[in-house]
Amino acid sequence: EEAHRGQGLTHRAFSIFLFDADDNLLLHERSQEKPLWPGFWTNSCCSHPRRGEDILSAAKRRLYEELGVGGSLRYVYQFYYQAKYLDVGSENEKCSVFLARMTLGQHLDIDPAEISNIKWMPLAEIDRWVRRESDSFTPWFLLEWKALAGEYRDQITDFLKA
């Protein structure tokens, strides 16, 4: 909580983009219980490592805790951003971005304290939604989506073919 007060303290974070077997991406609406950006749409899973925890282990842990699924993750890139939410607090993060895929037979087990709604969507439909309603999304998702849809699009294509 302290890392998100005021302008925020720089800290590690991660974002996961989870795909199903049909290459649809899971987006979620943040729970109204979240202090920062409640009710905003964002990537499949995002969080922070614990003190002393490596980023990959943390991402796998939170994927299971928030969505009830496991699996391998593919690191894509890392970036830094800072964003303020009203007078409530800020994000000030060095964020690692990962891709993941649901395996056949897995079912989501969503943590309602984190997630209030989900949508599985094809990439082109997400592109249209972002252009129409960018103010519905978290600031980190918009930055990540721009990068994933642009300079890292080949990595998504390769990941989905694997």
Output the keywords:
162 residues; alpha+beta; four-stranded mixed beta sheet; three-stranded antiparallel beta sheet; globular
Q: Would you give an account of this structure?
A:
The chain has 162 residues and is of the alpha+beta class. It has 4 helices and 7 strands; from the N terminus they run ββββαβββααα. A hairpin with a 3-residue loop joins strand 5 and strand 6. The longest helix is centred in the middle third of the chain and has 13 residues. The termini are far apart. The mean pLDDT is 93.
Largest sheet descriptor: 4 strands, mixed
Order of helices and strands: EEEEHEEEHHH
Strand content: 25-35%
User: What is the β-strand count?
Assistant: 7
- Round the mean pLDDT to the nearest integer and report it: 93
Classify the helix fraction into a percent range: 25-40%
Measured on Cα atoms, how large is the radius of gyration?
Answer: 15 Å
Order of the strands making up the biggest sheet: 4-1-6-5
Overall shape? globular
Number of DSSP helical runs: 4
Poorly predicted ranges (pLDDT <50, ≥5 residues)?
none
- Overall structural class, as computed from helix and strand content, comes to alpha+beta
Distance between the termini: 38 Å
Annotate the secondary structure layout:
Elements: E1 11-19, E2 25-30, E3 41-42, E4 45-47, H1 55-67, E5 73-85, E6 89-101, E7 115-121, H2 123-132, H3 139-149, H4 153-161
Parallel strand pairs: 1-6
Antiparallel strand pairs: 1-4, 2-3, 2-7, 5-6
